[in-house]
Structure formats: C-alpha cells, structure tokens
Design goal:
Blueprint (H helix, E strand, L loop, with lengths): L15 H26 L3 E11 L5 E10 L2
Antiparallel strand pairs: 1-2
C-alpha cells in the first residue's frame, strides 16, 4: 500500500460566474472584518446577527446579517 496521494485537481467545480461571486463575498468579508476590528479598537462592541436567510428558487440560500452595536 503506497503512502503517496494524488495531487489535487486544479480544475474548479465552480463556473467563472460562481468564482467571481465567491471572490466578491470573500473581499467583502475581509473589509467587514477590518471594519469590525476598527470599531472594537474604538471602544464599540459589534455582534453580527443573522436577521434573514435569502433563498433562490433553486435550493440555494445565504444568511443575511445585521450588526448589533453596543457601547460600555
């Protein structure tokens, strides 16, 4: 029995439109995380709460968030 594994397949299972949408979400989350860090450093507590879940007609869904802001 060999201990070698096949190299991962570089081909994506996502379409170019899906990959673009994933990059947009990832970039937006990065900016959101930076904004949360700045708010916390400024003395604010930030909680992200799911307030809705978006469903399309194909069985896909995504959480939608609202910030809950608190001060000391």
């Amino acid at each position: 029995m060999s201990s070698f594994q096949d190299a991962p397949d570089d081909r994506s299972e996502f379409t170019s439109e899906q990959e673009s949408a994933i990059r947009i979400v990832a970039n937006s989350l990065h900016r959101l995380n930076e904004a949360v860090t700045k708010a916390v450093d400024a003395g604010i507590t930030v909680e992200l709460m799911r307030t809705a879940r978006y469903h399309n007609e194909s069985g896909n869904w995504g959480d939608q968030l609202t910030p809950v802001i608190r001060t000391k």
